[in-house]
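Example 3.2
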Amino acid sequence: MLMMYWEIFKARYLNEKGQGMVEYGLILALIAVVAMASFTNMGNGLVTKLTEVVNKLGG
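Structure, written as tokens:
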């Protein structure tokens, strides 16, 4: 009888199937934030360089 309760407890409270998906989701979110920050920084640098080119061309 005790083993049956232990199995029910394990099935309900020790289920770790969804844990892996949550970890993958958090890693994906972190990668997305880093990518957005780097693309923003790169975009700002590109705008600065293009502005310099336009100014040197006399525009």
